[in-house]
Amino acid sequence: MSKAWRERLAEARTHRQQTQRWRTRQVAKSNTLDFAGNDYLGLAQDPRVSEAQAAGARLYGAGAGASHLVSGHLEVHEALEEALAEWTGRERALLFSTGYMANLGVLQALADRDTAIFQDRLNHASLIDGAALSGARSRRFHHRDTHDLDSLLARSECAHKLVVSDGVFSMDGDVADIASLAQVSQQRNAWLMIDDAHGMGVLGNNGSGCAGSDWEDTEVPILVGTLGKALGTAGAFVAGDAALIEHLIQFSRSYIYTTAQPPAIAAATLKALAIVQGEPEHRDHLNANIAYFRQAARHLGLPLSASETPIQPLVLGDEARTLRWAAQLQTLGIHVGAIRPPTVPNGEARLRITLSARHTRDHIDRLLEALAKCQREGAVCLTHA
After folding, report:
1. Using the 8-state DSSP alphabet, how is residue 69 labeled?
2. Domains in the chain, please, with CATH?
3. Which one, 21, 98, 208, 361, has the greatest CB density within 10 A?
4. What is the pTM of this model?
5. Buried b (16+ CB within 10 A) or exposed e, 206-215
6. Active site residues per annotation
7. How would residue 293 be classed by pLDDT, with cut points 50, 70 and 90?
8. Are 240 and 91 in contact (CB under 8 A)?
């Protein structure tokens, strides 16, 4: 490596470490309580889903072997796309290998320099990157502020306008106002795209998310969902009418130029989807866990957000404090995500606590006791400062 490149990497590392933003991977241990993942319904650990994946691998092989448009689109992929379309109340669905690729693929295929994209300020990075990749004119409206969005749309002279929002915001846990977004978009002749990665399986009618079967595709023309969160497997999909899906098949580069999802994953997802639709008790247990945690956390005086979803952020503000709390929790056998800028805005570092249907009351009590311990020790440190 040349000296210039070594210096560039060293400078970037030093800056990120000095600002308390250097990330490290942790090897997940079986004896650690996980309050950081997105397996909201516990289906990643459901033996029925695991067995469906193993059976799929025995039947179809370990991988698809090619892209969907070559020879990698197998009958199990077709069955999953049909099931996802029916679940979300859409005409068609299209599988992608990851949620990031789905968002990039949709925005790159639909938008160009003659398109105006309007994004919620707290949208996921993949949506921001997809808009940049498309070359479209991009504006960001204030978080969940449809008045600001309407003002921006009113000033746009573009014939093709696209409004883009997360469904459930991954760092705050709050939910987009789908009704207002749909109304404003229709009034301003814009299409609405909702990335409901964290709502699928958890919210809405039959678990179909905050913008699924409760909404017509005329109201939410572009619906993106991921399979690696509440459904417990991997990959993503886009749902909409036939014209949208056919356009993506022809023009979405992240769909065309990549190997299809492993068929065993598709088989496992079909089983997970059947469980989500047929066993609402998993969502009921998850919602009970959320209510229990929030009531107890409020009693402790913890800085809760307004989230009613499995994502329960504790905004601590200071990045060093956030890292200390996360490290203290780790020593107590509890893993919680320590989220710092640039993932969240400056001054809003937080512990991102996520709840699952697999958590018991004892698990949540352990978490609450550990958080109370961090709170007490933090107060002692402030007293002695």
Report:
1. I
2. 23-45+280-384 (3.90.1150.10), 61-278 (3.40.640.10)
3. 208
4. 0.93
5. bbbbbbbbbb
6. 170, 198, 229
7. very high
8. yes
